[in-house]
Amino acid sequence: MTKPTATTNLSINQVKITSDFWKRYRDLVANVVVPYQYETISDKNDTTIGDDAFTDKEAYQDGLQSHAIENLKIAAGISKGKHVGMNFQDTDVYKWLEAAAYTLQYHPDKDLQAETDAVVDLIAKAQQPDGYLSTIFQIKFPERKFKRLQQSHELYSMGHYIEAGVAYFEATGNQKALDIAEKMAACLEDNFGLEDNKIHGYGGHPEIELALMRLYEVTGKEEYLNLTNYFIRQRGQDPDFFDKQNEADGWDNAFWPDLNTIGNEYYYADKPVTEQTDAHGHAVRCVYLATGLAHLACVTGDQDLKDAAQRIWNDIVKKQMYITGNVGQTSTGEAFTFDYDLPTDTDYGETCASVAMTFFARQMLAGDFKGEYGDVIEKEIYNGALSGMALDGTHYFYVNPLEVNPSESEKNPDKKHVLPRRQAWFGTACCPSNITRLIASMDRYLYEIKDNTIFAHQYIANSTTFSDGIQIDQDSNLPWDGTANFEITNPNNVHFNFAVRIPNWSRDSFKITVNDQVIDVDGKDGIVVVPITDEKTSIEVVLDMKTNLIYANAKVRANADDVAVQRGPIVYCAEQVDNPGNLWNYQLDTVPSFDFAYQEGLLNGVGVLTTNDATKVETEPDSESLYQFNQAPRRASTKLTLIPYYSWANRDEGQMSVWLHK
Amino acid sequence: MTKPTATTNLSINQVKITSDFWKRYRDLVANVVVPYQYETISDKNDTTIGDDAFTDKEAYQDGLQSHAIENLKIAAGISKGKHVGMNFQDTDVYKWLEAAAYTLQYHPDKDLQAETDAVVDLIAKAQQPDGYLSTIFQIKFPERKFKRLQQSHELYSMGHYIEAGVAYFEATGNQKALDIAEKMAACLEDNFGLEDNKIHGYGGHPEIELALMRLYEVTGKEEYLNLTNYFIRQRGQDPDFFDKQNEADGWDNAFWPDLNTIGNEYYYADKPVTEQTDAHGHAVRCVYLATGLAHLACVTGDQDLKDAAQRIWNDIVKKQMYITGNVGQTSTGEAFTFDYDLPTDTDYGETCASVAMTFFARQMLAGDFKGEYGDVIEKEIYNGALSGMALDGTHYFYVNPLEVNPSESEKNPDKKHVLPRRQAWFGTACCPSNITRLIASMDRYLYEIKDNTIFAHQYIANSTTFSDGIQIDQDSNLPWDGTANFEITNPNNVHFNFAVRIPNWSRDSFKITVNDQVIDVDGKDGIVVVPITDEKTSIEVVLDMKTNLIYANAKVRANADDVAVQRGPIVYCAEQVDNPGNLWNYQLDTVPSFDFAYQEGLLNGVGVLTTNDATKVETEPDSESLYQFNQAPRRASTKLTLIPYYSWANRDEGQMSVWLHK
Question: ipTM, 2 decimals?
């Protein structure tokens, strides 16, 4: 195994986000979301689980509340009772803890920290002496530990704790939080590996890989790198591994019988990851694995792993990603389907999968400074991932469709997963805490440092201090305005490169001024590098905020003859509340002209696009026949109003569509 | 209960179909289809069941062949073994027998008749002394007879036998065939009714109602009318009837657990039929029930039943029917969804449901001479129903989609029911024999007589003799040509009315000449009546065979901005084999001009439509990005070729679409 490449001396001290847009979200997370989710997982509020696609009703026969904290108490011997909820119920606590840890860094809160410390203590008590922790197995199936990895989510759950433990240690210095994580890693080292006395397997739901890389990052211990390398390289070496375990555990003993025989492709375990050529199977499984893979490849420099990560990336981003950044085209197994298959009315686009794409993009970016990775982070945080949370912070989408007709969601069972409203909670509650931890950790997505270069790849206003006294202040009002000013203070006259991303929506037209001098750069690869030596450098980046019409590749059936509208990073949609009648009766003219207006009082402040270059079918009241011969529907000019996709479903329930007829 | 209205003296003696189009199909049925299906249900060929949406794999664990005849032999005590197949496996034999009976009327065949006689003998042996017959219950669950009517299909199965027995008696005079049917009806009378000692229930899958009406028709026995009346009026009176039976039989004892709790709407048993306002639930269940209802209403004249039938009709035809005549919008439960919800890529459109629509339309027509009922018969027999059978007669569609992309069928599980090829057989093999019996009985769909009027409602060339020596010869070459000549011979100078239907696609433009005199009629209600008194009358009807563009109602989301193409009764589609590339990249111009050419050598002879008034996206080979900014795809003029929908999927596998972008 290749040694990690040496790191440079440039490093980040502290990132402070000053962006109005993101401060609102991050304050909401600290003040509302984290408290709400803690009450929910502690069964202290009235929130009950809603209907979602993957809820096993049997798991909740003893109650419709989360029970996630309670399960840990039972495992810790503090409470008595049955395990309630899914195999991975513990992760609702861990992801909440991780999100809380991030908020403590920008929003110190002693009361919260007392709660989180107590939760860490509880987790420590629930953990077995050997490091194992999965409450459902400890409470209900102690004899089946590590014996049905395809479905057990044990490694997935421990992976989520490791992420949380690392984050909490980083935020608060709580050593116990890190110790639990290291004990878990030790448990996995004891049980998994190529040695004869170990299990030659891996988890059905990847997550441990990216988590162990975080543990490696914070501890620097090479054993965690090696363990990640094992889990990634061993996956799919024996395509029958899961079947053999299932057979030994008893086929009838499945947690989800449907998943017994769904095929190893679903678990991305049909062949070794280095032989895989595309993204397939369960979307979140695939992208979590790809995140760990990219991170490992970046650290080790192994070309075969880099290539494998690149193949997954290319297939998703160039062939299977919705314009909003959502991924996973089918509700059947929450899965990818195939290249250019992007149906808009039955799609899944799980919030977790979009969040996972930001993780994956960040690791790809760390490995290779290219604009496209930052573009995807930007796409997710302003669109596909962000739509997972309501403006109130306490309602969430699991599924993020591109087109919704509430009547179809209600009355056509093929669209029952396409909910027109965000829900208070889910039986499988992976999404709420996932979008929460992403927003709470947004400061980690602004800069990437490699060798001698600081890459400021997101246009989110911030004030950040680096090593050597370097400070960068970004003043910008994206996503609504296109001008960003960077004030770089470099008191020690360090020689380094400062790089900015030219977003794909502005690559044909942008202007960069360095100390009042316009510089001539082409922005190829979406990145512009400016050498810095002076004590003070002012850089202005002016991006092109015109309204863009987006056309899908001609291989995409679903969007033939349709257009989407994007301004800056924001993908727009039409909502029925702004556009009366059925949305499918609107048509954009060939070259529509849009007016943009920021509306302070609407949807917590959004930029609204309106156009009069549209028509709408005039429904004739006497035309009741289902089909008309040779009579094209009459159209009349109309106004069309578009709002940011992320902000839909925060007003009256109605139809929504990202793609518009033209 | 109202007495039946008196019948007039006008009656049909014999209908001989002379239409080239239909003779080919009917000869195929006699020479190929009926022998093939007999071998299949007798397990004498290699045909095995294929995958279909509703196949219970467990039912076939003892073999992948039909076993339908063998089940009867086991029930009859002639063979030993287990029941194999679905609850309703017996009906594959009965519907085959019914189809064979019809063929014997136009294609006498002593060998076939020996076989069918033997099958009747076998069925008689399998029938219990009390008249009961359902092989799965006799063999596997003798103690559960009539105890789980929601799922048992016992009445459905016996209904299908009754239809077959009546048809076979009518065709051959075989009394035993009728006796079996009457014994079954007696068994039902003994077990069902409002009396205290009887079951106050009905079958989960309607069919017995329309079958008992057939038995009433041929026997004239009022008890069968009364029994039909009971089954129809009792349905839904106690919405908990099925639940109570299921509870008593044991919930865990379900044949299809999913159907236990699906809701009584699914069975059209949520309230009394006279209180129902729309078509809902399982499409075939609903339309079979509606057929029996319409027939009963026609005979009794009961206005509440007529109204109930009319409401179902209106909801289907005006709000839930595909342009091809297919019905049932979702594969989930093979069901209706809701008004104006007509998705083209996930639709179900079961062949049986289209066949059922011809039954329903025929009964509505018998009750009320209106063109719209004949229009639907015509729509089904040339489109939605006919597409269920391949041109070779031995491959069948269960699902008849309006749009197919084979890659999606293969790789997107949401479309796995949308098969791009017809199958040799199915686990649930209801469709093959259903389309077969419809074609074999097509002669029953040409005329309807009421009071003093003979209504020749289909343009299918035939030579038919009536009472009083009346003979009508229709010479026409529909669906390809629009001129039909009727030669009416009336040797006894009987005074009667002759009526023809003006199809909805020709209602604005047609010409009728009676003995060389053009008559001035408006064709309102789609019917033109000509009084006949002379010994010889020649009537020429010239219909408008222009190519029509069809636009869907603006309430239909799926067809917004699309058009369909119809010429005469034939709905056209584009197939990829004629139109290279992806079909969704074609666009019809606003006012396209089509050339029509009958191609003798293509698809057993079809009328083909071509136009040069279309464009297609020119895919740029270097344009590999998934989304393009502000660059509308370039289009170039192209030729577009359309073939009749019924004939698709008889050449190379590829994409198909009925609706075209415009």
Answer: 0.93
